[in-house]
Amino acid sequence: MEPSLSNDYFGNSLHALREVTTAGELLEHNLGWAALKLHEAVANHTDQVVRDWVGVGVVIRGYHGDVAAYIV
User: What are the alphabetically sorted keywords of the record (predicted)?
Assistant: First the structure.
């Protein structure tokens, strides 16, 4: 993030990223190609993307099957 989180920030700052492909594409290409796709997802996860996401205000309930878990 720009500016980065302050040194006295207490909490988590975590974003899950994913890249979508097919089994055929994975078989057609190699592991390096899959790693490149993930690298591109990370590289494109810019400060503006994070700020836009914060502006939406998403709440996820039942993360990984835990009905008591909430992610905001």
Answer: Transferase
